[in-house]
Design goal:
single chain, 254 residues, alpha/beta, Rossmann fold, two-stranded antiparallel ribbon
Length: 254
């Protein structure tokens, strides 16, 4: 059973693509290119040029809209695609779930002719996010599974790394989406769409959420983080990595 066969139930209710983040991904992918979306989930952020989506979870595949690209149930480490079959291989907030990261990136490089695009996060930056104060156990779990940016760039080759700021009204309910709307984390349905919550110890999460609820009720959170209330976006560590496979790759043969 794939991880998201259980975690992905009701995913599309809270994980809608945000158009500002989508625009950054589209720009990284480029125009008029064929795309394979690896670890595609329910289809968020898939460019119009996507011709195939790869996803191991039947639960996530069932939530893909009828207009989405054709999807294949498979894993990143063994892509059922021919060499050089697409222009771009992309992966959005998924590499931390892969069982063999080097194999997955190698497979992306094998099937893509021109470019790799990966959306991930920088854990040292994310660790400074205020939610860490309430969920130290969850942050420790993230420490153990987060993929260092340097590891990814080493596997991908010459890579451009771009900050992806989180808008204050972000439509996609990922882990740091509600940095200016802390009340959202009190909603069990919101938490159910965030793997940091669903894969952490439930009792530790409950303690953290209860503490957050108390701080919101007595005004502590707002006093402590009043500077955030004036901001339109926030850097929680999300990064867009783009590797040009047509450029010379130092240290790589072929």
């Amino acid at each position: 059973m794939a991880l998201y066969d259980t975690l992905g139930l009701g995913y599309r209710r809270t994980r809608q693509p945000d158009p500002r983040i989508a625009a950054q991904i589209e720009a990284a992918v480029g125009a008029s290119m064929t795309v394979a979306n690896i670890g595609a989930g329910a289809g968020s952020y898939e460019p119009a040029a996507t011709i195939v989506a790869i996803e191991p979870s039947s639960t996530m595949l069932a939530q893909r809209p009828p207009t989405a690209a054709a999807a294949v149930q498979a894993v990143a480490e063994r892509l059922p695609l021919q060499d050089g079959s697409v222009d771009v291989a992309m992966a959005v907030l998924t590499v931390h779930h892969w069982t063999d990261l080097p194999a997955g990136i190698t497979e992306m490089r094998r099937v893509a002719r021109r470019r790799l695009v990966v959306l991930t996060w920088d854990q040292p930056t994310f660790r400074d996010f205020w939610l860490a104060d309430y969920l130290p156990d969850a942050i420790a779990m993230e420490d153990s599974r987060a993929v260092p940016i340097e590891t990814l760039t080493g596997l991908m080759g010459a890579t451009e790394v771009t900050e992806v700021p989180v808008p204050h009204d972000c439509l996609d309910g990922f882990a740091a989406a509600f940095w200016r709307r802390p009340e959202a984390y009190l909603n069990p349905e919101v938490r159910a769409g965030i793997s940091m919550f669903t894969q952490s110890d439930p009792q530790a999460v409950r303690r953290g959420i209860d503490a957050l609820a108390g701080d919101l009720a007595d005004g502590t959170w707002h006093r402590r983080h009043r500077d955030l209330l004036e901001r339109d976006s926030y850097d929680a560590g999300y990064r867009l990595l783009t590797a040009d496979l047509t450029a010379p790759q130092p240290g790589r043969a072929g």
